[in-house]
Amino acid sequence: MPNFSEGRDMGVIRQITDVIEQTEGVKLLDVDPGEATNRTVVTFVGEPEAVVEAAFKAVKVAGELIDMSRHHGAHPRMGATDVLPIVPVSGITLEECAQLARQLARRIADELAIPCYCYEAAALKPERKNLAVCRAGEYEALPEKLSCPEKAPDFGARPFDDGVARTGCTTVGARDFLIAVNFNLNSTSTRRANAIAFDVREKGRPRREGNAITGKPVKDENGKTVMIPGTLKATKAIGWHIEEYGIAQVSMNITDINVTPLHAAFDEVCRCAQNRGLRVTGTEIVGLVPERTLIEAGKHFLRKQCRSVGIPKEDIIKIAVKSMGLDDLKPFEPKEKVVEYLLDADARSKLTGLTVKGFADETARESPAPGGGSVAAYMGALGAALGTMVANLSAHKPGWDDRWEEFSNLAEQGIAIEQELLHLVDDDTEAFNKIMAAFGMPKATDDDKARRAEAIEAATLFAAQVPLTTMKAAMKVFPLCRAMAENGNPSSVSDAGVGALAARAAVIGAALNVKINAASLRDRAAAQALTAEATALTEQAKAEEATIIEIVERTITKMTL
Questions:
Q1: How do residues 373-386 score in pLDDT, each as one tens digit?
Q2: Is 75 noted as a catalytic residue in this protein?
Q3: Domains of the chain: residue spans and CATH
């Protein structure tokens, strides 16, 4: 996630991002330029070697195109490529990323003659874990820092010359996912925005003698300034005025979202702003954000309203967007700002992405998939959705306000069951495709035939196991629907009944798919075990459905008396 010291000239920015996109094995996810900060945050992903190569190329182009001696912007900076963090996404540790960062820093210094500091997990000196220490004094302090051995870069140290004057220094590191966020204020005062930043940031503000603003900073026995810590751990913040928007902002980096989630930072900045007579009008996320950050935020604000959190994640994210004013300055599009959505953009087309009509039409076509297994899983998902709907209606029923959390918990369980079954809709079709792929394997030689037969057996076993998983998932729908039939909003009791009917159909339908695939297995012991388990679940589902329907009928009868 490199940050380049150019946010105004799109021609320069495009030349930098072009070399990233042209690197094989790398996907450019986001380019977020800021005019007032004169800075662009770029996010790209890929396998480690490809990412490092793309980063090196981008640093090279930035060093050629950006002249730091002429750079001005609201954001702290000291290099054309100012910071270059490598962030683990999956399949790699933070320490492995730190090793890559150190190697990259050395290469940038050796081949491009750009001095480099290493920070966060890649730091070679303990104090340099903090980016602010590496960047102390910013670009203007480089002549003095480069002449001082204690402050010299980790790689490429040399006297300040025309080359360094142009490129500045780069800070390369490794860290976990960081959220860069700006909180908008109904003020133009940088001083007041800074005051709020000092209230909340972990570092806090200097302790002063006498007057808290103009007094002399207090020093400890070692001559270091004594700080009054802020209220938010794992945060760094400053205040600034953004001419582009005509407002002041509290600009924050949340370095550990497990310690301080975004919604907690928002609430605390709001509190501190109000204490100083100001108001937070909205929030601006710079770069990308993990999905869970928005889900956690949405659920937080729903709970504050005593509303059910067992709703589709798209609705939860909408609550997060509106609660924190993420669309205050410009539209907030989750598909463009959430990491997981960008990573999944090129994923195979899924049945669950179709409309209801599209799914029905796809099923009706002459192709054998999707078939009964996918439809069974979808019926189970609909059963879970109906049980969840009754829970949400009950949570919002007038007069039942003291029970909202009880029903919210049930609705949240229902959403989880629905999502599990929706995944199985695609899994069942994928299982069928694996059988077709196995049948398409070569069979010219005895070895070919043996490998083909083994692949067919494995694919068939998998095709029998998937609908069995569907049966087990659909069985979870019955306790939800029974709870809603017994204790939910009586006006919706019929919906709980239909949910139970859908779950029964899902279990019986999936059982048929278990049996038909098991019949083709050469391993008869495995086939018999699968069939026996499917038969037992079918009988249990019939009993569960009958009990729930009896409760539903009894409740409806009472309502008519």
A1: 999 999 999 999 99
A2: yes
A3: 3-174 (3.30.990.10), 179-343 (3.30.70.670), 351-560 (1.20.120.680)
